[in-house]
Design brief:
The complex is a heterodimer of chains A (291) and B (353). By secondary structure, chain A is mostly helical. In chain A, 68% of the residues lie in helices and 0% in strands. Chain B has an eight-stranded mixed beta sheet, with helices on both faces. In chain B, strands 2-1-4-5 form a four-stranded antiparallel beta sheet. The mean pLDDT of chain B is 85. Classes of the chains: A mainly alpha (291), B alpha/beta (353). Chain A: Belongs to the binding-protein-dependent transport system permease family.
Amino acid sequence: MSAATETDEPIAPPRPGVLARLLREPAAAFSLLLVVLLIAAAILAPLLAPTDPYDNDLSLAMQPPGSEGLPLGADAQGRDMITRLLFGLRVSLLMGFAAVVLGGGLGAALGFLAAFYHRWLDGPIMRLVDIMLSFPAILVGLAIAAIFGPGIFSVVMALSVATVPLMARIVRGSAMVVMRLDYIEAARATGMTDARLIWKHLAPNCLSAIFVFATLRFGQVILLGSALSFLGLGAQPPVPELGAMASEGRNFLFFAPHIAVVPCILIFIVVLAFNVLGDALRDALDPRLRV
Amino acid sequence: MSETLLEVNGLAKHYPVRKGLIVAKQVGTVRAVDGVSFSLKRGETLALVGESGCGKSTTARLVLRLIEPSAGTIRFEGVDVTRISGAAQRAMRRRMQIVFQDPYASLNPRLTVAETIAEPMLVHGIGDAASRRKRVEELLSLVGLRSFHAQRYPHEFSGGQRQRIGIARALAVQPDLVVCDEPVSALDVSIQAQVVNLLKDLQRRFGLAYLFIAHDLAVVKHVADRVAVMYLGQIVEVAGKRDLFAAPRHPYTRALLAAIPHPDPQRRGQVKPLGGDLPSPLNPPSGCRFHTRCPFAQERCRKEAPALRQLAPGHEAACHFAETLPAVGLDFTGGLSEAATKRLALYAKARAA
């Protein structure tokens, strides 16, 4: 034993917590700030917005950014872009979160079950996943909209359903690798229940795959959601939604590019911030990367 | 101390080999473990030795029911535990624990040492949070670690320290039997001595029985009370450690012992290494499984499988000609290499210290 271990006191200073480790990385700290700001903006939209999102003034239609009283201009109906963006952010973030949490959660659960009860459940679950995978999200969206009627709820359902098989496959692959490791066998040898084994030993060690995919998927889901809105399955016209705003602006791309470009920039910022934060969070949560 | 703790009878694990894209037909069976029987007394160490692929580790996992046996029975304290499941099985697991070969893979990297060691107690509802914390400290000092190590993560430790953590975890629920699956073969020689001695000390203190899987005969010679030699999924010889090293009765055991490097140049030419490879357990040889490589094989060996039979009290071997084999002509008791002898001396020294 080295001299260091002869002392009774630990030499290392107390470990920084997850948040402290997260903030140490500049990119991570910035993305965290951005995500907090975006969420706050979405929540506080009614207070922050200068006007009502449905107030239109056709005399202001397609005013470019920088016009008087309209820093980001107005859309084709003469509604303030800032207001529309704030309310659109609300819908988009909610949609993205709900779909990733619901679909990703269910998918991860299926993936864990398939890997853990490989012998009995892997075949049935993965064939089910294959079937789900063979339907495009748009088609699922159409079917769900036909049942529940178009709206945000239908979009969230469709996006969740489209997320389940992808998450299930990724988690299963990751979990199968972990299942082969000795500590899973060691956990089994202690005599714990399967539920505890999955929750305490299998799942935490698959976290990095889940995190990476969830953050990537978050961006995809927002874009897919706007595609569904564009088809008239999601947010219905007066309701602001970032993707829908971008697709409306498409018609005026040559006369008033800001109507499409500004929502796209916001989508870009949202997706980027969540991706960087997701990566940083994955690293901060991994004890092996702690210093 | 002579009470039988574990009794294994005709234990087997057969893996079906399937072929076919749509309808999978069974085209063969891998007989990883094929009819293994042994018993283990309380406080005793039985070493299971053999070359890689002979089924040692599979046997260990079968005993713990980490793999389901295809045939045979496992009796623990006289109770048949071969088919128990659910809560009864989980309760039984408290009595038998395992120490793994690879200290880098056997600890969950996401749990602190304290969480890892306390978990078996938590699972079996032993004590409350405070008493468990105290017990973790006790166990850490028992295996030669410090109490401040409890809050660290496995990656912050060396291989030897991790192996100690694995041992502490196994001891947390005060088992009667610990299966050691090559617990020191992944460690440095100097660390091996520490861990082997730790295992021996703990055995003396707590009356543990060890099923000790190994391929290193120097380690076996140091820790075992009895040795069982496995070949191709079967036990070919069981004897007390002294008997086995002094008078091996099975040709395979002899070959194994003769293969230990020896510093005496006089022995050169006297030792004929075994030719060939371990036959496939998918298609084991007829009769005696060792006949393809046995220098003494005769017609009978090809046709008739020899049973494990008693040759002397406590000494069993599965060879038709165990009594009539030519004398070994080699002294295996001292037949350890210089390096191995040094290591044994090192073990002894470390123990005395």
